[in-house]
Structure formats: structure tokens, C-alpha cells
Amino acid sequence: MAAAEGQWVLMATGRSPTNIAVIKYWGKRDEALILPVNDSISVTLDPDHLSATTTVAVSPSFPSDRMWLNGKEISLSGGRFQSCLREIRKRARDFEDEKKGINIKREDWEKLHVHIASYNNFPTAAGLASSAAGLACFVFTLGKIMNVKEDYGELSSIARQGSGSACRSIYGGFVKWCMGKKDDGSDSIAVQLADETHWNDLVIIIAVVSSKQKETSSTSGMRDSVETSPLLQYRAQTVVPSRVLKMEEAIKNHDFESFAKLTCADSNQFHAVCLDTSPPIFYMNDTSHRYVLAVHWLGILIISLVEKWNHSEGTPQVAYTFDAGPNAVLIAQNRKTAALLLRKLLYYFPPEDKDLSSYLVGDKSILGDAGLHSIKDVEALPAPPEMKIPDQKFMGDVSYFICIRLGAGPKVVADESQALIDAVTGLPKGL
Amino acid sequence: MAAAEGQWVLMATGRSPTNIAVIKYWGKRDEALILPVNDSISVTLDPDHLSATTTVAVSPSFPSDRMWLNGKEISLSGGRFQSCLREIRKRARDFEDEKKGINIKREDWEKLHVHIASYNNFPTAAGLASSAAGLACFVFTLGKIMNVKEDYGELSSIARQGSGSACRSIYGGFVKWCMGKKDDGSDSIAVQLADETHWNDLVIIIAVVSSKQKETSSTSGMRDSVETSPLLQYRAQTVVPSRVLKMEEAIKNHDFESFAKLTCADSNQFHAVCLDTSPPIFYMNDTSHRYVLAVHWLGILIISLVEKWNHSEGTPQVAYTFDAGPNAVLIAQNRKTAALLLRKLLYYFPPEDKDLSSYLVGDKSILGDAGLHSIKDVEALPAPPEMKIPDQKFMGDVSYFICIRLGAGPKVVADESQALIDAVTGLPKGL
Question: In what residue span(s) does the Mvd1 C-terminal domain sit (chains A, B) (predicted)?
Fold first, then answer.
């Protein structure tokens, strides 16, 4: 039902980034509140290339809360959305817009319904933490429209209840999710370790394996690990606390060697815990033989390539990290290293069609730095000398690459023309 | 140099089995003495199908110690062979054979040289613990000829110094290698938990991936894990001790459910520790793309198949375990289950050529139990119903299957015609 004629529609639009953990979150100590078994640390990715945009509209004419994701209506009845909505409504404040003649008292928010439209500027199914960006944006934008004054730490704690890692998307740069100790989860919040300008040499290249696959929920996998992996508790209680301290130091000191070693080791340990789970967690369910092999081969090849390259240089050039999804995330020390890395990656994973510029999204200028101006340059790439395996190529295993920098946290989109909801109808534009 | 005319050649021949760990050995606390970081438990495999046979010859005419493996002379100068030779010579006793007119005093053994010929009745390179069988046989047969009277525990401790897991091949049935506490390693010995008749329902099926690959030494991998994996110490100190107790109980009580769960969990945890190693340990070096994929796919498919089958039956039917080599070892509760398992395995991994009987070695009668009398029966096999992945087949990924039972420990081969060395020349037969 659209807004009734003559009634106001109040709107706010926000944009939130996605993030990639360098010290991994795996395992909850409380499923309902989403409280983790260990701290985690992430880098926030540039929202220009990977982000969620969300418009929240409020109108006395809306009979119920509704939500649309990428243009399709989805149910808001899930516990996670409801937790975030409830927690933001609890903190809502008086709001007045004299020009529009809108005056909402704190207690009115309980009765007012919202329409929420959200959109990811990257494929939802690509396994790029779309739920982290989406839930952070949901909470951030709801908070803006409801005039919530709580600090970002408290917002992060609410986003956490929507999707654990969403709490880290509340800030830009380097972010730590402190597991907290309290049973009510109020101290399980994210804090910013450093903003995106602190260490702006880093360049991230993501190999997206396939956008055809559903982003599998990590909830059941985490639960299985907590219940069956003897190594998980040791990791959470003993290994991660010391790694978090070292990672904080590495970030503070721009110490890429430590940063890379910790990132790679923690990615591998996270997958070790998945393997130590009973039954072991693989990328196996309902996928094709070709896909399973492509994912494993990509992982093995990229890990081997990075380890051998780092070893041959004597000091780490690149860090790799793999989430529960299939994509490889590579963090290069600087732009020059990223360009060299791209040459090695494109040697093994050339594009299936000849259009190089659609094969690398994000900061396409890295192609020029890598000396790759056309597909001919890719075809002429030499085999990475540090690799001793046969120099076979794997066309089609990678859907596309993303080149991206660290980025800022959530922002209000002030330009009202960017809103995803029509200010008159109160429904998503284009519906 | 052959035995000089008129001089005697004394010979002994022994045969030793190979073994498969169900609680894994991974990591040494002392590299020189080969002292492990945790206890391990293995099953000994039937030597009729997998074993090493070794003939040791002694003659005053031999100017030096020499050894031949599968007909090719190899160097005996390595520290491991030398340790075993030294330890056995130390314990040598007076020997007399009136008929042959041979009289060797304890102190003479130091001056007498040996010729050793060893032969595996399976491909050395197949990753089937040939070094465990070989070193156990080396020590056992040397001990026999030198009239060593020490008990099997002490023999196992000597075999351990040749190849860690060789100490477990000194017994049949179920064997535990106690890590020991002493710095000199004298209490790091194997003990028999139960002989091969104790639980004789078990049937083992091994999928041999390829016999073209070299058996890679696990020494450097273990060292890397000990030095870099934070999870290894926790596994060794906390997880394994409790698993060993539970495994001993399971074996004692013929409790297949516990046996299978512990076996699978420990195989997966061993591989988790390999992944937690920096750089992570994969089957990657100097192998082809096809081989790497075949090994990973075999592992993923077989683990998934067994986990899903066990889950669908409500109670474990089969346990899987993977060593550092590429082969899959499957332990079935009984012959009926093994036959069902074989049908599932042959559905996915049919033989490349049409000769079924050379595709299954060992106890070929299992083919009849599985209703597989010809290649047509294999081609007509239905897809395993518990698997939801596409029912693709992977011809050529498995070289052959072995069907085998538990077996006895080392034995003297009394039939002198079976000796590998010519009693006149003192050199390997056929040389």
C-alpha cells in the first residue's frame, strides 16, 4: 500500500561498506545475541566499489514494516531483522522537520511503520559479505531516521545482532570486534583501530570465483565447529588473543611483514578448524564437480603462489585470506606489488572473453600499472618464475577480479535523488 | 664382492606388515631419536597382501655392509639405518650352528658385515607405509640372525629409530605407540593392544590414487608443523591423550561407532594441523594439476560419501582415514558393509580398463560379495542414494583398490627357498 495522499513520507538514505576479516570470526558463544568466541579484526573495503545502499522511509500511512532487497520484497519477520528494528526503535528520539511539518515524538516511533529498500553495488551471491554491509546499513540508516544519538559502538552492537560481522562495517579502516564478556552482549562491540587513511598503501585484489552460487549461511557451520571441533576452543581462548595483540601492533606500525604473516596464518587456521569439525566443512553441498574443483584449485594455487613468491622475495609481498565463501582476497603491500600480483594471477586465470576491462572491476587503473592494456598483453604474460608446477592456465575458473582500497565507514547519502524509495508513493523506485 | 669360496654364508629371512594409524602420529619432540609428541594407535594390515620381506646374510667374506631394496642397491650410510644396525649389533649374542660349523661370539658381530635384501609385495611409491614395513623387517630380521633376545617392546624402540611408525609394525592387530617420557627414548615403544583375531569382522578397503608418485618424506612436514602450528601442541597435549583412552576402550569393546568416529575425527584433525602449518602443507609439490585435483577430489568425495552414508544409517558403517600420502583407507564394520562400500566406490571410480580382477587386489572374493562379477555389473551400479551431488564418474583417478583384513606381526620365513639372497654368492638372487 502506498502513502495516502496528503500524508508525509520521511526518508533517509545511507551507504555502508563491506569488510574482510584478517583475524577471523568463527564460532558463537551465544546464538541468539550473536556473541563470538573470540575477538576479530577486519579491514573495511572502499564503498565506491563494494557497499550496500539503504533507504528507510517512514510514514503514518504505512500499515506495516516492509523491506525490499535489490528490488525484490523480502520478509522482515526474521529474528535478526526484528532484533535490529526493536533495538533502534528503543533508542529513537523526538524528531522535528518544521519545513515539512513533521513532528515525531519519541513514543510515536513504536507505532510508525518503515519501508526499507536496500541495494548492493555488487552481486549478492558472490560471497562478498553482502550481509555485513546490508545489516550495517540497515541499522545505520534506521538510526539516522529515528534520530538515534547513541555512539557508533552501540550501533555496532545492534548491527551485530543482525549479522555478526556487520558490526565491523560500522567503521572505516581497521576495525576490531571485541568479543566482550557480559551475558547481555552489551560489551560485544566494534571499535576502530585506525581509519582508512592510516595505512593507505595497501591494495586489495579479490578473485571472485563464481557469482552463480548462493552465499551459504555460516551459522550452521559455526555451530557444528563449536560443538565438535576440539581445536576451536583452543584457537579462541589461546591463539586468537595473542594474534589480536600482534595484529594491532602490526597495523599501528605499518608492519606489513607481521600483518601478512598473521593474516595468512589466521585464514589457514580458520579453515583448519572447519576441517576439524565433524563432519568436516567443505564447499561441497549441491554444487557441481567442476565448481568444487575450481574453488579448491584456486585456493591451493593462490596460496602456493603467494607463499612461494613471499619466500623467494625474503619478505612478504602479499597476504591471502579466504572466508567461508569461495573467493580469494589478496592484500598487497602497495600498488606496485598489487600490479605484479595481478600479472601473476592473470597468467593463471585469464579472462574467458576478450574484454579485459569487464574482467577487472573496481580500480581499473591497476591494469595500466601492470602493463596490461589489452588481452594481447595478458596472453604474453610469462609464467611466475617462483612456481614449479606445470604452467597450465585455468580460463573460466575466476568470474572476475576486483581491485579495491581500504575505505570509510557508513555515510548518509545527502543527495535525495539517490534515495531508493519514491518520496511520494513510499515504495521502491521503479516498482 | 661375493662370498669367497669355502666360507660360510649365514642367512635369515623375515616378513613384516605395514600399518595404518587410526590415531595419527604427527610431530617429533626429538628429531634424532624419533620421539613423538603424542601416542598413536594403528591397525596392522594382513602381510599376505602388504608386507616387506627381508633377507639378512652374514659372512666373514663380506668386506662391507650392503643393502638392496627391490633389487636395486641403496646406501646404508643414512643415520636411520645406521642407528638400527648399531642398536641391534649392541644386543647381538653368541650364535652356533654345529651342522654348518658356524660359531659366532657376541663380540664377533661387530666385525662381521651384513648383506641385506628387502622386497615389498606392493609398489614402494604408492604411499602405503612401505618404510614402516621395511624398517620393522630390517630390525626384526637383523635381530633374528644376531640372536637378539630382547623383547618386542625393545625391538619396536629400535625400529622407531629407523622410521617412527615402523615401531607399530612389530606387532599384529591393534598397536599403540607410547610416546614415552624419557630423554633417551627408551620408553618410547610400541605395545600390542589386541591381536588380529580380537576383532576380526573389520574389513579394510584402500583406494590407491597413483603409484607414479614418490612417497614424500613426512619428516620436513612434521618439523614445519611442530615449529609453526599453534594447534599442534594443543592436539598433542590435550586432544590425543583423551582420544587414545577412548580408542583403547572402543577396540576393547568392539565398539565400532566410537572407533569410526574417533578414526575419522583424528584423520581430519591431522589434516587440520597440516593446514595450520606455515606454509600450509598440501599435496602440491612437483605434481600435475590433474594429480592435485584427483587427490583432493577423491578425499572430498570419499569423506562426503562416508559421512552421508553413516548419517543416513544413523550409526557409522565405515571409517575413513588419510595419511600424509594420497590414498584413502576405509575401515568397514564387517564384510557386508565392505561389499556395500565397494559398490559405492566403484560407482564413482570405475576401472579404466575392463579387467575388474586387476583393479581390486588383495582379497578379491569381496567382488563376489558385492555382486560384481564383471565390468557390466560395475557399469550397472546405481548412484549412491545418500549423495546429492551430480552423479559424475571419475575413471582413472584411482589406480586400484585393495581389500585387506587385519594381520599378524613380523614372522620368520622358514622356507629357505624364499630367501632373497643366494646362499652361495651372498648376493641378491637374480643379480
Answer: 204-413
| A190 shares a domain with A324 | no
What nine digits make up the cell of A156?
555496532
Cβ partners under 8 Å of residue B62, min gap 6: B1, B3, B112, B113, B114, B115, B426
Task: Please tell me the distance from the alpha carbon of residue A413 to that of residue B344, in angstroms, as a whole number.
Answer: 58
B178 in a domain, yes or no?
A: yes
Q: How far is B352 from chain A (nearest CA, A)?
A: 19
Specify the pLDDT at position B161. Answer: 96
Q: Rounded to a whole number, what is the distance in Å from the CA of B235 to chain A's nearest CA?
A: 7
β-strand partners of A331: A204, A319
Which of A261, A284, A300 has the CB atom closest to B292's CB atom?
A300
Number of domains present in the structure of chain B: 2
Q: What is the pLDDT of residues A162-193, one digit of tens each?
A: 999 999 999 999 999 999 999 999 999 999 99
B428 within domain boundaries: no
| Interface check B4 vs A, CB under 8 A | no
Set of chain B residues whose Cβ sits within 8 Å of the Cβ of A264: 278
The C-alpha atoms of residue B359 and residue B205 are separated, in whole angstroms, by 12
Same domain, B242 and B185: no
Each residue of A233-280: pLDDT tens digit?
A: 999 999 999 999 999 999 999 999 999 999 999 999 999 999 999 999
Q: Could you give the 3-state DSSP secondary structure of residue A297? A: helix
Distance CA B157, CA B140 (A): 11
Output the CA–CA distances (angstroms, integers) from residue B357 to A35, A56, B148, B272, B366, in the order listed: 57, 69, 42, 36, 11
